[in-house]
Amino acid sequence: MVDERPLFGPRAYLLLVRMWSRSASQYRVSLAFTGFAQMLVASFDLISIAVIYTHVQTLAGFTFAETLYLYGTTRLAFAASDLVASGIESVADSIRLGTFDLVLIRPVSTLAQVLADQFTPKRFGKLIPAVVTLVWALTELPLHWTPAKVAVAVVTVLTGFVLYCSLWVLSGCISFIAVDAREVANTFTYGSEYATEYPLTIFGRPLGLALTFVLPVAFVTWQPSLYVLGHADPFGLPGFLRFASPVIAALLAGLAALAWRGSVRRYRSTGS
After folding, report:
1. Which of 38, 42, 44, 210 meets the CB 3.0–4.6 Å disulfide criterion with 125?
2. pTM for this one?
3. Is there a domain that residue 19 lies in?
């Protein structure tokens, strides 16, 4: 007997990912080459950081290993979110072409459909430089690890993943308002990832505070990493913010869920 119940949540997403993965795996050589290309492209920012440290000993008070810790945690969280949620980038084209109507009539969660759209295993290539960099940084850092620091380091990546996934969804919601605003949406996703690869103090106090209280990407890795690395907050912010990342991630995820639901409910077909 066929199960005709609607599919929601992770189950629907995983089934769609499996479908797209099987499709992509039919071209294994192409998949291997594009995955390798993704790995190389993801390494370019790492090369730029290495070049900077050939001219300076510290950057905003952070050593090379400490900056690589920031880079590694940020990159790992972002690469994981890119793997899971970057399919939402295609929602702008779906709305413009009128094919988003098909998403609405299927008995499957709309968010699961757009997140899994065009999923490809080549995105795993972005994870490799992040993992290698983070492992190297952890071996080079002269830190006294305590259970609290280990917990914060692990939670840093997990909450960073949730924060970035939330930003992907919120950026997708922009497409319901301005269909041709993909580059604006990318500012919040790729732009946020770039900013959090470095110590926020290099951007100055006004922008650093904006990235903390307006677009809260400082909670991806900056705030918890200050605790792990033993740095005082250069902006003089309260110490409890170093442990606030899970709360901020939960709030932003809730906001993203409400924004997506509201955007879908207010969607009007192109009529084509």
Report:
1. 38
2. 0.88
3. no
What does the angle CA 119 – CA 131 – CA 47 come to, to the nearest 5 degrees? 100
Range of the domain at 124: 27-266
pLDDT digits (tens, 9 = 90+) for 127-179: 898 999 999 999 999 888 899 999 999 999 999 999 999 999 998 888 888 76
* Dihedral (CA of 179, 183, 186, 192) sign: negative
Separation between Cα atoms, residue 157 and residue 83, nearest integer Å = 14
Backbone dihedral angles phi then psi of residue 176, each to the nearest 5 degrees: -75, -20
Is the separation of the CB atoms in 152 and 224 below 8 Å?
yes
Amino acid letter, residue 49: I
Nearest to 189 by CA among 160, 155, 157: 160
Token pair listed for 17: 């990912």
Does some domain include residue 132?
A: yes
Judged by DSSP in three states, 269 sits in coil
- Count of domains forming the chain: 1
- Confirm whether 1 is domain-assigned: no
Could you tell me if residue 176 is inside a domain? yes
* SS3 category, 108: strand
Distance (Å, rounded) from C-alpha 12 to C-alpha 7? 5
Rg (Cα) of the chain, in Å, rounded? 20
